[in-house]
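re: ur question from earlier - yeah i can do the single chain one, its not a big deal. heres the input i used so u can compare w yours
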Amino acid sequence: MKRYLSGLILVGAALATGCHSNEAAKPSTVETVRARVVTSSQEQVSALLHAIGTVHAKQSATISAQVMGRVQQVLVREGDQVRAGQTLVILDGAALDAQAAGAKAAVAAAESAEAAARSNASLASSTLTRFRQLEAEKSVSAQEMDEVARRAEGANAQLEAARSQSEAARQQAAAARAMQGYTRLVAPFAGVVTARMVDPGAMAAPGVPLVQIDQTGPLELQATIDESAIASVRVGMKAPVTIDGVSQPLSGAVAQILPAADAASHSFTVKIGLPASNQARAGMYGAVDIAKGSTNAILAARSAIVIRGSLECAYVLDAQGIAQLRYITLGAAHGDRVEILSGLAAGERLVDAPGDREIAGKRIEVQP
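and the output i got, formated as tokens:
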């Protein structure tokens, strides 16, 4: 029995020794992939003031009614191109039409009364002239002369009152016609309808928005800049603008700096003029980088940056040429390169354009 156990122990030891020697004999292999490689560098670059903002049309108008009335027709929808003076909304104008008709009739009555007063004044003036001739001939008494003169004065006064009433009636008629015009809301300039806030049958009231229009043409980015940095900004400065949803940065220029700061945020609004773009739309979020001197920075090719989840990172080669995934913090863009705020040193080699490949831990064979 003892000899049997000893044999088993010897066999087990031999097997264990054999397995250990086979594992030790296996060589460790690292997968090799080919890729282009770029190198980070430290350079003197422009120090940039980074600001965020929203894209707006250079001119925008909210159309609202000036009189109370029921909406009869809405002739446009969101996205429609409109020309200056084009009718957008029509209100029910029956009441205003009646007022205009009444004012027109009042003008006719006042003008008729004025004509009658003018005739009376003319007759009284003629009578006064004749009586003055008779007075010179001593053919009328002083009392008769006074009565005729007073009648002439009264006729002239009635004529002036009739003229005033006629003018007032004409002014009221003009106001009624103007009110009639308020039932047709028109575009103040050529543009695009960005919002329609009413449908036929609704009641319109003065000041209540009905339609929003943005002017056709180039847009602008309205960015917010802290008061401590506003001294670095001047009208006419070139400033690259990046807009979410627009594939390429746009070349903007500072068009206007609002003269007063916001009392709550202690910041200024700066308007950056943008070139024409088929992709930019009013309401988009954007950012601008304004130069304010120079500084040393570490730069890397933008094409070497990859996104993993919500984080920016890059594949960095170690001394053996093995790619390691490293998380980094990005700064301002400089053409096709981007500033690296943390995570990289100057002179490190990065895998260029890795795409969606997972190459961490793999040896990189440099592809020309």
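Residues 59-92+189-216 form a domain with the OB fold (Dihydrolipoamide Acetyltransferase, E2P) fold (CATH 2.40.50.100). not sure if urs matches, ping me
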